[in-house]
What we know:
- By secondary structure, the protein is mostly helical.
- It has helices at 2-8, 11-54, 58-82, 87-110, 118-149, 154-177.
- It starts with a helix and ends in a 7-residue tail after the last helix.
- Mean pLDDT is 82; it is low at 1-6.
Amino acid sequence: MLAGFFFILHPRTICVIIFYGIFEKIVISNRKKNKHRQRKTNMDKEKINDLWGKYKDIIPYVFWGVMTTLVNIFSYWLCNNVFKWDIMPATIMAQFLSIVFAYLTNRKWVFHSQASTFKEYASEISSFFAARIGTALLDMAIMFIFAEQMHLNSMVIKILANVVVVIVNYVASKFWIFKSKDSE
């Protein structure tokens, strides 16, 4: 009886029934996938929030440190290759520009400085510039020894020097310059 019923149906109707069955399976499958994706998305958001809470100082420091390094390297390249300055004057100018950039970004977006009085600002600025001048001297010493005296590739040495400088600057900023009032 049922077999006879299918013979009565028009071929288009049979196609519609078949496509409806396929469509229904796709929709059910997609609903299952969407529920799985939603659970996975929620777990991903939780992981991201956990990582952010754990590394909330380091992540922006790395980002702005990379930006500062790019300012330093680009400034050095510009002074050395475009303006044809010697290695040491180009290094000094690159350090100056990157120190100013680093102070502005670290103060606001990395360590969220709470300095509010003139004395606090003066202490913060002088500590920051003292530490950065120290690491600038370290950078210049590395450039002088390895690029100027040993004649190694100055851009490679500049990049390696910046890795050392970034690490020393983070430690100085975190534990000396921008230490929170809570830790005092």
